[in-house]
Write a structure and sequence with these properties.
The chain has 376 residues and is an alpha/beta fold. It is built from 17 helices and 10 strands. The strands form 4 sheets. It has a 4-stranded antiparallel sheet, sandwiched between helices. A hairpin with a 5-residue loop joins strand 6 and strand 7.
């Protein structure tokens, strides 16, 4: 049974999705570029992106859903615009990317997408098979979204809607159902000569337009990267402790960002969007879980978040953070001890020197020993 695209979109909108488009279940046009990106190692530690089974799924969506005919792509806005740049840029605070200010988007979008998939199964006569993904499947979702007419991929590799910017989440349904009409692909790019995202990235994570070297990306470094952050990159990370919004914020299309009606994506207060670094440095496993349960920050875990807070504290120039950092020299996590040593030396090298010398004498972890010795 052929499904009405108009009815699909009406149902998706009734479920609260901001955008919805349809495309044929074909390989993403950017597949070859993605494979070149992997070959260059720009995915860093994210080895799952290069797994053979996942590459097979990206080449052929039938590997995900046998007989797949269509892909439905939805978007959900998360922009709230609640706080001024001045408030968010307080050096005593650690910045969190806007998508993570509220609850975990997977938990908000997935049930709605499952409900849309259930409706689709019924509309197709109960015979269709499908798979739902919210940032979890082996699909090049931004490329598929461009094919479904939702926007274009910018030089910062984000999907950009000409009348809404890039502050929206994506989700997909891969299905054996067919539609009576498919959306026309969006123009491949509307960036023109603009290079603001490339020029303003503090770590130089874009070696060329439309190519992101994750190994230098602040979002990757604060979330995906598990170990010690390259000391040369730490001073460039500013106050970001989870993710980064710079390449989106400077994009001219962002002036059209649509404020989300989803209360779950909004910050309860400034401390949720930019928590005081002193509080982050004091987190233990229990307080981390109590504060960030059900949010995207759970992905990083306590040790990585405190590691990131150490870097931000070292960049802050705020002397009041010296004592909280000093206490972390005895932390149980080597990655925290090493970054605390770096931050102390950066804040006040003279005052830090005797503390670091004592730590060095007792340190048994080779990586932390090397970090600490380099700070003396």
């Amino acid at each position: 049974m052929i499904v009405s695209t108009a009815m699909l979109k009406a149902h998706a909108q009734a479920l609260g999705f901001s955008l919805v488009g349809t495309a044929l279940a074909r390989p993403a046009p950017t597949l070859a570029a993605y494979q070149r990106w992997l070959a260059l190692g720009m995915h860093g530690e994210m080895a799952y992106l290069a797994r053979r089974d996942r590459l097979a799924r990206r080449r052929d969506l039938n590997q995900i859903v046998p007989g797949a005919q269509s892909i439905v792509v939805v978007g959900l806005d998360y922009f709230s615009g609640q706080f001024s740049d001045a408030a968010l840029s307080d050096p005593a605070r650690g910045r969190i990317a806007a998508y993570a200010w509220g609850l975990d988007y997977h938990n908000i979008m997935t049930p709605r997408l499952e409900e849309l998939a259930a409706w689709l199964r019924g509309a197709a006569g109960g015979a269709s098979a499908q798979r739902v993904y919210v940032d979890t499947g082996a699909v090049l979702e931004r490329s598929h979204a461009q094919q479904a007419g939702l926007g274009f991929v910018g030089k910062n590799t984000m999907l950009i809607g000409p009348r809404r910017g890039s502050y929206f989440f994506l989700g997909e349904i891969i299905t054996t159902a067919a539609f009576d009409a498919y959306d026309a692909p969006h123009r491949e790019t509307m960036c023109g000569r603009c290079t603001r995202c490339l020029a303003d990235c503090p770590t130089g994570a874009f070696p060329q337009p439309y190519v992101l070297d994750a190994r230098r990306c602040i979002s990757y470094l604060t979330i995906e990267h598990k170990g010690f952050i390259d000391p040369a990159l730490r001073p460039l990370m500013g106050s970001w402790v989870f993710g980064c919004d710079i390449c989106q914020d400077v994009c001219p299309w962002q002036r059209f960002a649509v404020e989300t009606p989803e209360l779950a994506f909004r910050a309860a207060d400034l401390d949720r969007a930019a928590p005081p670094l002193r509080e982050l440095l004091a987190l233990d496993a229990a307080s981390f879980q109590a504060r960030f349960h059900g949010t995207p920050l759970q992905r990083a875990g306590r040790d990585r978040l405190v590691r990131n807070a150490c870097v931000a504290a070292g960049n802050s120039g705020v002397s009041d953070l010296f004592d909280p950092l000093a206490r972390l020299l005895d932390d149980s996590a080597p990655v925290v001890r090493g970054h605390a040593a770096w931050a102390l030396a950066r804040l006040d090298s003279a005052a830090a020197r005797p503390l670091l010398a004592r730590r060095l004498a007792a340190e048994t972890d080779p990586a932390v020993h090397t970090e600490t010795a380099a700070c003396l």
